[in-house]
Amino acid sequence: MKMLFKGSEAIAEAAVRSGCRLYFGYPITPQSELTEYMSRRLPEVDGTFLQAESEVATVNMMYGASCTGKRVMTSTSSPGFSLMMEGVSYMAGAELPAVFINVVRGGPGLGDIQPAQSDYFQATKGGGHGDYRMIVLAPHTIQEAVDLMNLAFDLADKYRMLVTILADGMLGQMMEPVEFPKMRDPNDVPKKDWALTGASDHDPRKVTSFDIDPYELEKMNLRYQATYKKVEENEVRYEEFNTEEADIIVVAYGTMARIVKTTIHMAEREGIKVGLFRPITLWPFPYKRLNELSDTVENVLTVEMSYGQMLEDVKLGVNGKANTPFFGRSAGVVPTPTEVLDAVKKAMGR
Amino acid sequence: MIDKIVAKMPKSLSGKEFTYCPGCHHGIVHRLIAEVIDELGIREKTLLVAPVGCSVFAYEFFDVDGTVAPHGRAPAVATGMKRAMPDKVVFTYQGDGDLASIGTAEIVHAANRGENITTIFINNAIYGMTGGQMAPTSLLGQKTTTTPYGRDAKANGYPIRMSEMLSTLTGSTYIERVMVTTPQNVLKAKRAIKKAFEIQLKGLGFSLIEVLSTCPTNWGKSPIEAGKWLEEDMAKYYPLGVYVDRTKEAE
Questions:
Q1: What is the predicted pLDDT for the residue at B7?
Q2: Is the peptide bond before A214 cis (omega within 30 degrees of 0)?
Q3: CATH assignment at residue A311
Q4: What chain A residue is nearest to B56 in terms of C-alpha separation?
Q5: Engineered SS bond to A257: which of A278, A304, B166, B180, CB 3.0-4.6 Å?
């Protein structure tokens, strides 16, 4: 049965159905509805909701909760995610699974509260210190966001990694009919033989990102890198729309990809076949498939609600095989389908 | 031949050699905590949150499940653990830089929520691990590597009294300041630590024991001089005693 749901609340409900019973968070626009939803929903399912004193505390509460092996999440928006970066780095180093929702807004600094995609670098290239990676999933509809929640928690547990759902203010605030998956048993999660549950049935366990001996720390780092390699090999996800015999390929993700789908129909009426390549995993980025597609067109146009962040990954993927023009607006301004169409025509020299 | 064993390594210590300097009080406090854990029979359900600082290795010294929190964040990490597993005993071990400087927000709010955790707070009036810089608890006039002319209130503010401050919060159930300079003090400190853990076991809320401690290395004193300075100067500014006891109200 489909239900009409606001994006933020739909994501929250999907998380509950994924077996998440622990939510720590701090209010920030444009995602506070998610926090509020959890505050009323989690008590209904014997879960724990706690409003932390800051995003700094939030991520550390997640660290503690994740140490016990239970599924845990938070949601925030750009400035809040920046504050969490210290804990993100520690969690990545301690190989603690958790799910973050970043409903991105315009930046830098306090910026504004409108939709943006200007946190791509922060999510995919680090943000915190050290050689770590996070899996980054980018839904373009509320339904897709709902569907990705189960995957997010499963990937986090499977690889002992952090997973970020990179959404934006548009997805967080809009309403759409959605179909929810079935409720999962919160205890039905993979066995975690590393979790801190009290040394009753095991020798004392230590969860840490710390080792003062560089050779030991290097071993830990090589283990992280081996995990990241596995993720790159197995977890790349993307959608191709209209790419076969396309005149031009547009690369876009999230809300921007949704707008490009409208542009595709407009372009059709003008006799231009626009193909959309939509990365669903921003990390690991679908370099390989994009490289193959680059053989089929002269232009691979990147369109973002930023001034060109994913563009750098697109260039790595295309690797000189095609032109890589760019169109973007940022700071909370959402490009219109017409503006994107103009960018398509300009790229094609029309 | 040994007739009677009067002292042995507590079960809750791993036996790994401490990394602390001669005359430092961390070792004594570690032992007291371990003895309390043994006596209460809670080793198998105790989770330790170690800090950043000299006691960063505490997670290796205690023979319990444990982790290391980011600097100052131990109370938030402990909150997450305790909320996820309310039946476990969760304690943080934090120094003054950790608890009274970078982690003030986390300790204040954990206490204010009445978080059912225990904090052991080591106040030695200096940053030990990083080499003797001024701590928020350094005394006025105290020379450190970042106050080479002595701590000046105009520039650096005043030594912060955490136990007094935290005791004003209704969420704090039990807060006591102790020291471990003499056998008598050590016994008192152990009783305080035990009480703090018992409060958690009874689900009565937040407990914190502040232990005034020496740092002979960074104070530039011999262990004996350091003990004397602690008793005569530090304890004068940071009086020992119970700052709040809401155990009866909480019961």
A1: 84
A2: no
A3: 3.40.50.920
A4: A210
A5: A278
